[in-house]
Amino acid sequence: xxxxxQPDIHITVSEGASLELRCNYSYGATPYLFWxxxxxxxxxxxxxxxxxxxxxxxGIKGFEAEFKRSQSSFNLRKPxxxxxxxxxxxxxxxxxxxGSTLGRLYFGRGxxxxxxx
Amino acid sequence: NAGVTQxxxxxxxxxxxxxxxxxxxxxxxxxxxxxxxxxxxxxRLIHYSVGAGITDQGExxxxxxxSRSTTEDFPLRLLSAAxxxxxxxxxxxxxxxxxxxxxxxxxxxxxx
Lengths: 117, 112
Known about the structure:
The complex is a heterodimer. Chain A is mainly beta. Chain A has strands at residues 4-5, 10-14, 19-21, 24-25, 32-38, 44-50, 56-58, 64-68, 73-78, 87-96, 103-107, 111-116. In chain A, a hairpin with a 6-residue loop joins strand 10 and strand 11. Chain A is globular. Chain B is mainly beta. In chain B, strands 2, 4, 5, 6, 9, 10 and 11 form a seven-stranded mixed beta sheet that branches. In chain B, strands 1-3-8-7 form a four-stranded antiparallel beta sheet, with no helix packed on it. In chain B, a hairpin with a 7-residue loop joins strand 9 and strand 10. Classes of the chains: A mainly beta, B mainly beta.
């Protein structure tokens, strides 16, 4: 069963427009949640993470994400997109093993963002 | 700190050949893992290790072996490469499995 769902495979926005990338997870307890970005031919860079506390988290490059327990969601947002934001974005969740501090990271299938000038 | 390093960057194999993908980290992280990335599939966990001498399987372990003799190194072995193993492979490390994982630059593997 898939633990992380990113329902949008590809999103196109105009430069300067706002952006929201959706992420839903299926897990009983509160997971540890991440958003990573991957530029073409590059590795993955962490944008932001949520472990606990304030459900609105700020990340790098002007991104933010909000954890909503009732909706099992962790959507990524940016108020004004720049052309350099064009990349693939991955939501990920750590499923912690019971009674352990360790866990395994599971990724969604990614959302490809295209930015029109 | 170099962070997480991977070698080689690119490799072409023939079906049935074996090879080892190298991964090293200099952050004294206990947790290390291997992922493969295929178009439209995201990253899938192959194997992971919670410390020297301890490894376990992830989502897609078949066809791959790992070992962890030191904290720094976590090689991934393909004993008999198959075209289905054509992919981009990423190694990652973190303090524990729950913390932020740091990724290497990836190894692009083509199996003919």
